[in-house]
Amino acid sequence: MSSQPTPLADAAMAPLGDCVLSSRVRLARNLVGFAFVNRSSPEQLADIVHRVQSVRLGGPFEGGARWVNVQGTSPADRLLLFERNLISRPFVEATHPRCAAISADESTSVMVNEEDHLRLQMLAPGMQLRELSDRMFAFDGAVERSLEYAFHPRFGYLTACTTNVGTGIRVSAMLHLPALSMVQELERVQRAAKELHLAIRGFHGEGTDALGDFYQVSNQKTLGRSERDIVEEFAGSIVPQFVEYERAARRVLLERDAAALDDRVHRALGILRSCRLLSLEEAIKFLARVRLGVALGRIDHIPIALVNRLLLEVQPAHLARATGTSIGNGRDDRAPRAELVRNSLR
Amino acid sequence: MERTCDCCPNPAVVHETLVHNGVKTEVHLCAEHAAERGYILPTATGPSLIATKLVEKASATAARAVKTCPNCGMTMQSLRESGLVGCATCYRHFEEELGTLIERTQDGATAHVGRHPSQVSSLIDRAAARNRISRELREAVSREEYERAARLRDELLALGTSDTSGETAMGEVRP
Ligand SMILES: [Zn+2]
Ligand SMILES: [Zn+2]
User: Fold this and answer.
1) ipTM rounded to 2 decimals
2) Interface check B120 vs A, CB under 8 A
3) What is the pTM assigned to this prediction?
4) What whole-number distance in Å separates Cα of residue A56 and Cα of residue A47?
5) Cross-chain residue pair B114–A39, CB shorter than 8 Å
6) Helix%, strand%, coil% for chain B, nearest 5
7) Pick from A176, A183, A123: which is nearest to A291 by CA?
C-alpha cells in the first residue's frame, strides 16, 4: 500500500473545494462472450480475471498497473482500499474470484467482477467532473480496443442491473453541506434532488447516514441521454446549484449569529485537540465542523487539506495500519484515534 | 417399493387390477396420466399425496413452458427476483419484457443515446434493431399509444438511416 495521500486528501484549493470534497466518474462494462458475474461459475470468473489481466490497460495505467488479487488479500487491506474509495463495499465482502487494478497515483481503479465484469472508476478532489470524464472516455476507448464490450443497439452498454444500462455512467460529487443542515434546509434539498432524479447517499455510499453532513449526489438515469449531457448537467448546473445554496446558507449563518457559528466550529476543534477517546462517528462529526470553520476563514493555521486527510486517516483500516494494530471484532480504537487527531491538530 | 407410472417414470398414484376375458391386468398411473385416461382423483380436503403430486406436476410442466435464456438459463421470474440480468443474450431474448422493465427503472427512457463501440458487429445489430423498433412503432400507432410511438420514432431516428445493405435481408429474424 502506498503511503502517499490519496488524491482526495490533496484537495487544498480544488475547484469548489469549500463545498465539494471529491468528484467521481464510473463506467460499468461487460465483456462479450461471458455470462454476467451473477450467472458465472467461479472458474468462469477466474477466466475473466485472467482475460483482463492479460491486456495493457493504457491511459492512467501507462506506467504499469498495481493488480490486487482481492480474494488473496487480508480483510484489513481490502478495507483500506475501500476507505480510499478505490473499491466498493460489495467488492470487499464478496467471496468469488475478482481483482482490482489501481493506478500509481490512485486516481483510477478498475474492479474486475464486481456486479459487472468491469467497473472503471476515476476520482479527483473538488469539482472536476468535466476533466475526469474526458480522461475516462479516452481510457474507456483504449480498453475497448483490447476487450470487446457487450453492447445492444437499443439498450446500449449492457449491464447486470438495468439501472446502469445504456451509458453505464455514474457521475457523483461528494458534497459538504453543513450550513444547509444547520438552517434546516436539507430536507428541501433532498426533495429537489429526488425531483431531479438524483440519488443522495451518506459518507460511505448506500445505507450510510449523512455523517458530518457529507452527501454523495449521483445521477440515477443512465439511459436515453448521452454521457456528455449527463456530465454537463452535473458540472454545469446541479453541483454549482448545490454549492450556491450551501454558500448562501453559510452567509446567513454568519450574518445571523457569527458568535454562535464561531463557538460551534472552535468547540469542535477544542474537543479534537483535547480528547482522549474518540469514536469514528465523533471524529467525522467534529472534523466536518472544523472543515466548515476553515472553509469560512474562521479557523486559522489549519489547511483544509489536513482536515481532508484526517477524514481519511481516522477510519478503522487506516488507523490500524498507522498504529500497527489489527482491526475488527469490536476492537476499541478510540484511544489511538484521539491521539492521532490530537497530534495532527496541535 | 413405490410403483412408477406405466406411461412415464413418475410415481403411480392410481393402482387398479382389471380383469378382461379372464386375464388380469395391473394398471399403475401417475396423477397426470390417470387424469388423462378419465380417472377421477379423490379431492381430499387436506393436502393429499395426490393433490401435492398434481401441483408439483403442474408447476413442473409450467416451468418447462417458461421462456429461458438459451445462453445462461435465466428466466424473467428469476431476473425480476434477483434484479439482475444474466447475460448479454438475455437482453435479446427478453427484449420486450426488459424493454418494459427498463422503461420503468430509467424514467421513461427506452433507447441508448451516446457513446458506442466501434466494432462492425454493432452496425449489423443496428439494422436488426431498426426492424424491431419499426414493428413496435406500427403496433403502438395501431393501439393509439401516441406517447410511446413518439418515443419509438425518436429511437429510430437516433439509430440513424440504413448504413448496411443487410437490412432487408435481416427481416424479422430475431437472434
Ligand atoms: Zn405418467
Ligand atoms: Zn442470459
Assistant:
1) 0.87
2) no
3) 0.76
4) 17
5) no
6) 50, 10, 40
7) A176
